[in-house]
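Regression test case RT-17, inverse folding.

Input:
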């Protein structure tokens, strides 16, 4: 057993506390990782508020990178000393969705996430004598994490941990959503929400060759970052009707592909209404589970619009993390400018407060 500190949610709506915890040694097929950096993601906040009803007490965090300290029996892909980025969907490779090439929908991984355990179903974290849950089979806002071998993706030693951590969620989700959409070179693209994921949709669209990228966000800081990452036009929805502004920019036609990266039903509807006939709207942000949207049904057959979703950017981390690193090495993918604030683990509650305040970019906890 190892004594550690971690960001613990004791119950929904309660303040995040930094608690003394213990973590067991890794079991078969599992890996013990010393966390060196972890991003602060809005999805974790959904758990804090209870909108994402994961079992509590819960160690937060799912966007991390670190060093392998120990391995359980049967582990073959990683060894002690390896630098790794962690995937919060440790896809099994054997369920229906994995076989169909949709590993982001893996039954085993989703079941483990809902139950707050590793894919083995065994808890490795304890608060006192009581077993506790970890967020999405990772729990990266802690000194150490035991994860499935399937979650640990080896990365080069020269990739800084704070940047590597963002490959675990924000970059994979955003760039992946752009890459796996119908977006084609020369298209006009809309991105609603220029946070950590939205900024990566923007740069993914730029890499894919979008001719005009429009970003909508009420935060001045986020709009400036959107321009830095490749947006050609930004819209402040507090100053003007965003739908009218988008239609004006596109001669009344609408955009070829629209992405919603906030997770609000009304904004998904806005993205859909701003999409041209025959175009595609992609919902990327994570709404609360019971949220619904209202759309004009006639628009589906009469305009042949498509509304689809993107979970984790449709990514397969073993394949996509190396590809993203190659784009970073070539200078096409920006990661360091995403990081606008760095905190210690003890300052994690403040990091979540700043997230809620909409200060822009990504916050990273570093060790």
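Golden output:
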């Amino acid at each position: 057993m190892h004594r550690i500190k971690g960001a613990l949610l004791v119950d929904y709506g309660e303040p995040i506390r930094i608690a003394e915890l213990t973590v067991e040694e890794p079991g078969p097929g599992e890996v013990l990782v010393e966390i060196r950096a972890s991003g602060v993601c809005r999805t974790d906040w959904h758990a804090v508020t209870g909108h994402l009803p994961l079992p509590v007490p819960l160690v937060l965090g799912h966007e991390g990178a670190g060093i392998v300290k120990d391995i359980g029996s049967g582990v073959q892909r990683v060894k002690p000393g390896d630098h790794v980025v962690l995937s919060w969907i440790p896809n099994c490779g054997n369920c229906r969705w994995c076989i169909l090439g949709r590993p982001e929908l893996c039954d085993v991984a989703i079941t483990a996430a809902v139950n707050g355990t590793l894919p083995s179903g065994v808890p490795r974290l304890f608060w006192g004598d009581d077993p506790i849950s970890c967020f999405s089979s990772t729990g990266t806002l802690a000194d150490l994490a035991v994860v499935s071998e399937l979650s640990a993706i080896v990365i080069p030693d020269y990739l800084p941990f704070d940047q590597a951590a963002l490959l675990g969620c924000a970059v994979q989700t955003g760039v992946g959503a752009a890459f796996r959409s119908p977006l084609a070179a020369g298209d006009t693209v809309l991105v609603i929400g220029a946070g950590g994921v939205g900024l990566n949709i923007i740069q993914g669209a730029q890499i894919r060759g979008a001719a005009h990228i429009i970003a909508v966000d009420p935060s001045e800081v986020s709009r400036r970052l959107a321009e830095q990452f490749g947006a050609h036009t930004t819209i402040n929805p507090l100053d003007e009707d965003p739908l009218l502004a988008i239609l004006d920019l596109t001669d009344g036609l609408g955009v070829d592909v629209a992405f919603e990266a906030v997770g609000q039903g009304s904004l998904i509807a806005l993205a859909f209404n701003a999409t041209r006939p025959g175009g595609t709207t992609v919902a990327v942000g994570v709404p609360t589970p019971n949220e619904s949207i209202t759309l004009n049904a006639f628009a589906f057959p009469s305009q042949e619009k498509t509304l689809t979703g993107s979970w984790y950017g449709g990514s397969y981390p073993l394949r996509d993390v190396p590809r993203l690193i190659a784009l970073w090495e070539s200078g096409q993918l920006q990661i360091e400018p995403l990081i606008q604030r760095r905190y210690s683990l003890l300052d994690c509650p403040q990091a979540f407060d700043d997230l809620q305040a909409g200060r822009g970019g990504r916050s990273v906890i570093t060790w």
